[in-house]
Amino acid sequence: MMRQMSNTSAMNIGTVAEQSGVPAKTIRYYESIGLITPAARELNGYRRYGSTDMRALSFIKRARGLGFSVEEVRDLLDLWRNRKRASATVKELAAQHLQALDRKIEELQSIRRTLAHLFTQCRGDNRPRCPILDDLADVEDEEVRQSNRVGAQRA
After folding, report:
1. How far apart are CA 127 and CA 134, in angstroms?
2. Which tens digit of pLDDT belongs to each residue from 26-69?
3. Buried b / exposed e along 131-148 (16+ C-beta atoms within 10 A)
4. What b/e sequence results for 26-35 when a residue is b if at least 16 CB atoms lie within 10 Å of its CB, and e otherwise?
5. What's this model's pTM, rounded to 2 decimal places?
């Protein structure tokens, strides 16, 4: 459902994109998935955005910057708009996101330790032997060996 707007402070998509820091293409995408209400249209068909739209886009940009998924942002927006919400609901959503971030950080730290170890093992000289490539090949070879074992067991 498109809104009609008579607000004199209405902005076109270029202006709201520039001021919110959200690209116009992303704003149109957010409209298409129902994350924000489709913009009001002028008689010439141009989208017009008001201060409420700007606040929602700023909210979305900040939430996405904190790593919330689009669906989590949708939930947060619903909570933000609902003045009867319980802050405990918001806190629980944030706690779940923090746990997911902690898991991702642990995973990335493990990846970094592995790559740093391989990096120190590689001489980086003119010789063809490279522990980094050897390790990558071993993982692939191990996956192939494991797949072959599973296939042999089924046969």
Report:
1. 13
2. 999 999 999 999 888 888 888 899 999 999 999 999 999 999 99
3. eeeebeeeeeeeeeeeee
4. bbeebbeeeb
5. 0.72
Question: Where do the H-state alpha helices sit in 3-155?
Answer: 13-20, 24-32, 51-65, 70-81, 87-121, 131-154
CA 83 to chain centre: 26
Residue-averaged pLDDT of the chain? 87
- Running DSSP on this structure, what letter comes out for residue 11? B
Spell out the residues 6+ positions from residue 131 whose beta carbon is closer than 8 angstroms to its own: 118, 121, 122
Helix, coil or strand: residue 48 = strand
d(CA 3, CA 54): 15
Q: Evaluate whether residue 90 is within a structural domain.
A: no
Residue 32: domain span: 1-69
Pick from 49, 69, 89: which residue ends a domain?
69
Number of domains in the chain: 2
Cα dist from 36 to 70, 71, 75, 83, 136, whole Å: 11, 12, 12, 18, 44
40 bridge partner residues: 48
**Contact (CB, 8 A) for 76 and 90:** yes
